[in-house]
Design brief:
By secondary structure, the chain is α+β, with helices and mostly antiparallel strands. The protein is built from four helices and nine strands; from the N terminus they run βαβββαβαββββα. The strands form two sheets. Strands 5, 6, 7, 8 and 9 form a five-stranded mixed β-sheet that branches. Strands 1-4-3-2 form a four-stranded mixed β-sheet.
Length: about 130
């Protein structure tokens, strides 16, 4: 069985976050969701647990970082093409996301970034497969 990752993210308004990611084409696993938590399915092995801040505090003794003021993590997603990068970034910006950084176009690699409604930073990257072949 391949190893899975569950990234836990604090959110202020769970319904707003669910609506945002649903508009980007993602689904949720109801088996790991409840009224304070939503399991965002990114792939067969990658999930983001969107936890209302009060629920997130159950897992840490530390203060929750204010993602609007500081960056603790940047979540990077691969895309199958430059067009898919633009498709996801444009959808995010059209549905409540905000720009994070300028697009990066290195020819063999192309990426854009955005912030979700809770200011978590997401990057979407495409890399030319021939550029990574040995």
């Amino acid at each position: 069985m391949p190893q899975m990752i569950f990234v836990n993210l604090p959110v202020k308004d769970l319904e707003t976050s669910k609506d945002f990611f649903a508009k980007l084409g993602y689904s949720f696993n109801p088996q790991f969701s409840d009224e304070r938590t939503a399991c965002l399915v990114i792939s067969d092995t990658i999930f983001a647990m969107l936890l209302q801040e009060e629920r997130f505090k159950d897992f840490t003794k530390k203060e929750i970082a204010d993602a609007a003021a500081s960056t603790e993590v940047i979540l990077a997603l691969s895309a199958d093409s430059r067009e898919k990068v633009d498709e996801l970034a444009d959808a995010a910006l059209a549905n409540g996301g905000t720009p994070a950084n300028e697009p990066q176009d290195l020819g063999f690699m192309y990426g854009r970034s955005f912030q979700d409604p809770d200011h978590h930073m997401w990057e979407v990257i495409w890399m030319d497969p021939s550029a990574v072949e040995g």
